[in-house]
Amino acid sequence: MTNISDLKNMLLEEKVRLTNELSMVGHKNPEIEGDWEPSAPDLNNPTADVNDVADSIEAFEGNSAIEVELEARLLEVDTALARIEAGTYGICRICGAKIEDARLHANPAAPTCIAHREG
Ligand SMILES: [Zn+2]
């Protein structure tokens, strides 16, 4: 028996964690609700030498990759929370079958059943 309120709590906890992690590598896009942007390094620092700038750019590229991953996961979590509100949570979006309880407990944001998971 699926306990949706447990899964909802798991999703809400994950959302808090993802939001915290995102705020370390990026910031909210003020123009698009729910969108995040990687934080850019301060390249105008007058004391930075060429190596510092190269390090900053490297760090920015690392942040961007992490930011994209976290943002994608946050979107999945938000989508799952929206489906709980809409009453369509736990239904495979490919075949419409009920998603296995074990799968939801392993990944409460799973949008598909085991047969239709994408990797
Ligand atoms: Zn399916």
UniProtKB/TrEMBL annotation:
<protein>
    <submittedName>
        <fullName>Transcriptional regulator, TraR/DksA family</fullName>
    </submittedName>
</protein>
<dbReference type="GO" id="GO:0008270">
    <property type="term" value="F:zinc ion binding"/>
</dbReference>
<feature type="domain" description="Zinc finger DksA/TraR C4-type">
    <location>
        <begin position="87"/>
        <end position="115"/>
    </location>
</feature>
<keyword id="KW-0479">Metal-binding</keyword>
<dbReference type="InterPro" id="IPR000962">
    <property type="entry name" value="Znf_DskA_TraR"/>
</dbReference>
<dbReference type="Pfam" id="PF01258">
    <property type="entry name" value="zf-dskA_traR"/>
</dbReference>
<keyword id="KW-0863">Zinc-finger</keyword>
<feature type="zinc finger region" description="dksA C4-type">
    <location>
        <begin position="92"/>
        <end position="116"/>
    </location>
</feature>
<dbReference type="InterPro" id="IPR037187">
    <property type="entry name" value="DnaK_N"/>
</dbReference>
<keyword id="KW-0862">Zinc</keyword>
